[in-house]
Amino acid sequence: xxxxxxxxxxxxxxxxLLHGWxxxxxxxxxxPASLTxxxxxxxxxLPGHGAGPFELRHNxxxxxxxxxxxxxxxxGVWIGWSLGGVIALEAALKAxxxxxxxxxxxxxxxxxxxxxxxxxxDAEVLAQFHDGLVTDPAGTLERxxxxxxxxxxxxxxxxxxxxxxxxxCQAPLPAALALGLDLLRDTDLRGRIGALAxxxxxLFGRRDTLVPAAASEGIARLLPQAHRRVIAGAAHAPFLxxxxxxxxxxxxxxxxxxx
Length: 259
Fold this sequence. Notes:
alpha/beta; Rossmann fold; 7-stranded mixed beta sheet
């Protein structure tokens, strides 16, 4: 598993960053100094994304979590974006002693809509992306980038940033993209997140069309002790479109943890 680390003198806390589907570690390049100053930052690439190896054993959500744990420090605060949030949740449930706290950026324990979980994606949308990967992987990634910024106050600049970051590393492997979509489609951690042993912060974008902000209400029911914040004007990538507000919220959460 590929990871890159930036060590800062006098560090007091280690952050472990997991990007979303189809992206790579470059997605975190715009994090504000309010979040990174005085902390060690480790950026881990998911299997088959960027330089992250994709092996036969990387065939499940648990296996992706294990791969990330292999590259992570003995203990840290994990920040997961979208699919990266799902993998961070799985890691925290598998190895609670390794995760000091979780920050979930536009992530949810269930991405696909259900009668008792309406604030989620239509399964047909994921199916269309799956079909598109077969005939046009590059075009499918581009359509996903557009969906991530749709409705955001900073849609154009965020889309330019996503395109630039995606181009900084080698293209994700189609097989890894397909499995990642399967994980998004099939994952339902609602019955397990009550067992989380660490503090959590859930951040949503008010204009997110992939993970609707109303999912915050579902988190409140499942995990009453969770910290939650909805960022007005943001879509699926609030740390890119609203970096200071997102970074400041996360930094405040970390200060409460003396981290």
